[in-house]
């Protein structure tokens, strides 16, 4: 279970590293609490399962049972960073921040008194960063299956923690530790989210509307989410949570061919087409230096954990 590179002891320093959120974590193998070894280079539990802290200041808590699941590559993460830097998804980022802020006056963690935000499927951390910026004195942890996402998150979200884990499996968090959980364009593990949220905690879910990036789907041969799968997950959410707010965010954004290529390259289509092919299709669709309008359209659903769940 050891990971690629061990950190120097400074990786557990005061700047929002593992030490700042280890109290929220539990061993993915046995469920026991985790602590540091003497040099501060790994985490271990009372049963001596151990997990090295990478030099980039994240920890992998994979339990070895996730098989060969695909995760974001370095190129996919780079494309996503460029899309966010271009501001294409700012309407979604802002909506997540607003939803988190609406909870900030009440959210207090049962562990430390500070609100805790957990982002499941965090990617490189843009949505976690926005949520943390809107909630005073909050602590944040981003979880993703991709080590490249974890590396980017530690660089771009100062003070947040990064964990590599499979959000479809048992989450490596102690019970009732989170005040807010984010699932933005990400898998929704209903039972585990209910477990880690404290009573009255909020789950902020962002899902694409049918017209999200619709202008690109056919010409760029992008993969789309199955409606049946989405409906099944929504039904499961409804059995464990109360929906307290649901908002549709829809804006048109002007994008260049290179940004179109990045929008395609940051998602699952990139597993099936190489970058050169994607860029060629993008420049055919949006030739020259012109910009093309695309629709950013999502539903932001805020759910509250019920007391009797």
Automatic annotation (TrEMBL):
Residues 26-62 form the 23S rRNA (guanine(745)-N(1))-methyltransferase N-terminal domain. Residues 117-201 form the Methyltransferase domain. InterPro entries: Methyltransf_25, RlmA_N, rRNA_m1G-MeTrfase_A_prd, SAM-dependent_MTases_sf. One of its GO terms (biological process) is methylation. The keyword DNA repair does not apply. One of its GO terms (molecular function) is methyltransferase activity. Keywords: Methyltransferase, Transferase. The keyword Transcription does not apply. Pfam families: Methyltransf_25, Zn_ribbon_RlmA. This is rRNA methyltransferase.
